[in-house]
Amino acid sequence: MKFLRMRPGFGEQLIAEGDVEVAEEEQALIEEFRRQLDQGMWAAVPTMSRGGRREAELVRAFDDIPRDTSRVIFFPRAAGGAE
Amino acid sequence: MIVALSATAIVVLALLWEISMPWIERRLDARRQLRERRRAGDVGAAYDPGRERRAEQRARELLKSCVNEEEWAMYRDLGFLRVWGGQSDPDGPAELRGIDYAYLVYPHKPIVAYLPQTGRLLNEYCVEFPDETRPYGSPRLPDSDDVLAKWMALNGDERRIIAEANLHLPGRQIDPRQIERDLWRLGRWERERLARALRAGGGDPQRQAEPADG
């Protein structure tokens, strides 16, 4: 599983990578996931519907991430703009 | 003689010191200000168009890998995405039950909600994804990352992003005439895509290719 983060001036950056079936690597991913959410990021998981359409799911906890997901994309949380 | 030369040298050094002090102070001030700006993450002067172009290229690849083929083609050809609203199902809010609605997603512009059947504009949802770490002085994501963030948020939790956005009437930031033109372009684009799919003998051109707009 890869954690990618969108960043200004970079595009996406690989911030963590690990195998969720390996306890130590899973723990490292959990900690990184929490760190990103603490920094105000939203986390999205690209998914595929049963009809084959690509979709996305916003996840708020590491346990919400499907185990077979290959990547989680972090991006800054939405804020109302142009008041 | 030596005493006279030494005295002259001392006077010259003193004069040089007097002359150079303001210059040295200015340099030290400039260095201190630059250090403080770096610490605050404000290094806007370091704008590099090559870096921004590479970032946008990476963002486009990521977008392409996440959205559906027809959505990618739409963005590539038209510069915006259409995302169907998800609240029109029988269990959705009463005012939207049974009514198809959709959003136009532009990079770094408000999300525009509209009714595809009539082309009527509903609202502008002004929303940003500012990255306050400002790695290069700006909180703005590359254009395609901004579009992907909106697409993922609308797909993943439509109510959440709409709740975070500032709601405005249509026309607040995007000229309604531009949206009308874009809906017309979208309709034409879909008809051409449908025709190509039929010519190629391809079966289902999918919902996105239905000429429902404009």
Brief account:
The complex is a heterodimer of chains A (83) and B (214). Chain A is α+β, with helices and mostly antiparallel strands and 83 residues long.
Structural class, from helix and strand content of chain B?
A: alpha+beta
Largest sheet of chain B: 5 strands, antiparallel
Number of helices of chain B: 5
Main β-sheet, spatial strand arrangement of chain B: 1-2-3-4-5
Classify the oligomer: heterodimer
Number of strands of chain A: 6
Mean residue pLDDT of chain B = 85
Q: Count up the helices of chain A.
A: 1
Q: What is the string of SSEs of chain B from the N terminus onward?
A: HHHEEEEHEH
Order of helices and strands of chain A: EEHEEEE
- Round the Cα radius of gyration of chain A to an integer and report it: 13 Å
N-to-C CA distance of chain B? 98 Å
Q: What overall form of chain B do the CA principal axes indicate? A: elongated
Which class best fits the helix and strand makeup of chain A? alpha+beta
Question: Could you walk me through the main structural features you see in this protein, from its secondary elements to its overall organization?
Answer:
The complex is a heterodimer of chains A (83) and B (214). Chain A is α+β, with helices and mostly antiparallel strands and 83 residues long. Chain A is 19% helix and 42% strand. Chain A is built from 1 helix and 6 strands; from the N terminus they run ββαββββ. In chain A, strand 3 and strand 4 (54-59) form a beta hairpin. Chain B has 214 residues and is an alpha+beta fold. Chain B is 52% helix and 12% strand. Chain B has 5 helices and 5 strands, in the order H-H-H-E-E-E-E-H-E-H. Chain B has helices at 2-39, 49-66, 69-78, 143-164, 176-199; strands at 81-84, 102-105, 111-115, 120-128, 166-168. Chain B has a 5-stranded antiparallel beta sheet with strand order 1-2-3-4-5. In chain B, strand 3 and strand 4 form a beta hairpin. The relative contact order of chain B is 0.12. Mean pLDDT of chain B is 85; it is low at 208-214. The A-B interface holds A 4, 6-12, 39-40, 42, 44-46, 53-58, 73, 75-83 and B 51-52, 54-59, 61-62, 65-68, 110, 126-136, 138-142, 145, 148-149, 151-153, 155-157, 160-161, 164-166, 168, 172-173.
